[in-house]
Amino acid sequence: MVMPQEDRIFLSSPHMSGNEQKYIQEAFDLNWIAPLGNNVEGFERELAQYNDIAGTAVVTSGTAAIHLALRMLGVERNDTVFCSSLTFIASVNPIIYQGAKPVFIDSELDSWNMSPQALERAFEDAKRKGEMPKAVIVVHLYGQSAKVDEIKEICDTYHVPLIEDAAESLGSTYKGKKSGTLGKIGIFSFNGNKIITTSGGGALISEDEQMLQKARFLATQARDQAIHYQHSELGYNYRMSNIVAGIGRGQLEVLDERVNQRRAVFERYYKAFKDIPGIAFQPELENSRSNRWLTALTIDSKQTGVSRTEIIQKLAEENIEARPVWKPMHLQPLFAGLLYYPHEVENSVSDFLFENGLCLPSGSNLSEEQQNKVIAMVLDMLKK
Ligand SMILES: *Cc1c(COP(=O)(O)O)cnc(C)c1O
Q: The whole model's pTM is what?
């Protein structure tokens, strides 16, 4: 049965500010609908300012941004790229688009993100085999920063550039710096379920303005400077449109507010469940601040008497959307047989997080009343 949208409690749904209309109207008034234009430039400038970084290039999706980042770093056929295993598939697909091979790296429990010790083992093996990766993609899951200092140190030792997949962590910070600004290239997503959205979109950010210039070039079909449409390189149609960028400008104005709202959602869940044996929330690393895009936790069914799957099913009956933690990439049928480095030889942390992990409705537009309903239902199940 299709339920009316207004009755449904979503995991994470778009939350408009009202300011978006102003920018869209301006584009209409100027008939600046076609690609590029003042909103694209404005959004790039404002996004760079927000993140305190030299520049950004806005594109059609986060996936496109990762694809361009790989092109920027020269990833080609038969190269390898190390990537977090516990993530959404968009982190990995662009590696395949390039004909390269992903190597999956497990998580650790302090952040649920890339395990530095697994990364180190992967590098040692790669060095032995003479197959160094062209890049490392680290994901900041659900808004929480990975152990970037440790990971960067390893990458620097082996002279391999780091791409931050900050699709879920826009507005988060790590040691006072914005998430996504710590590697060679960072990427964001403005997909409909993210902390701010343009309905669909993405961005690359970097201190290297030349690299971004090249990304913009490749994103507009790699057109040489000639009036007769000449092309010397393979390009894409990846540039963000001026209308979509207008939505982004309106959304960016409320990003900090959205972060605070998501953190407040987390705090309410945390207060309600923190003392229950068998429940553990995704931790926040010292010196980092998560945007808490999604509130994620693990349920030890032996202690709570109920599994995360039972909780998801029960909530679904009440038209409430909850989800398991991402299914790790090394467990995906599409990537069967590819190399994987667990946290410890006999201990895969991402397997554990997938089997026991739960994401609860976390939207910035989730009302307290709606959240109380979710909390009451979960508490009710746990007590039995
Ligand atoms: C959403 C997401 C992406 C991709 O973004 P799109 O804009 O949907 O292409 C990439 N990586 C992660 C971790 C994501 O959550």
A: 0.96
Q: Which helix (H) or strand (E) holds 357?
A: strand 357-360
Cβ–ligand 1 distance for 139 under 6 Å, the answer yes
Please state, as a whole number, how many other Cβ atoms lie within 10 Å of the Cβ of residue 268: 16
- Fold classification of 256-383 is Aspartate Aminotransferase, domain 1 (3.90.1150)
Q: Report angle CA 62, 64, 67 to the nearest 5 degrees.
A: 115
87 lines ligand 1 (CB under 6 A): yes
Strand partners, 344: 347
Nearest CA to 184 out of 88, 69, 287 is that of 69
Q: Which residue's CA is minimally distant from atom 8 of ligand 1? A: 191
Question: What whole-number distance in Å separates Cα of residue 249 and Cα of residue 173?
Answer: 21
pLDDT digits (tens, 9 = 90+) for 52-108: 999 999 999 999 999 999 999 999 999 999 999 999 999 999 999 999 999 999 999
Domain 20-254, classified CATH 3.40.640.10, yes or no? yes
* Placement of tokens 């209409």 in the chain: 28
Burial of 101 by CB count in 10 Å (0-12 exposed, 13-18 middle, 19+ buried)? middle
Q: Round to whole Å and give the CA distance between 298 and 355.
A: 9
Domains in the chain: boundaries: 20-254, 256-383
* Length in residues, the chain: 384
Question: 53: Cβ below 6 Å to ligand 1?
Answer: no
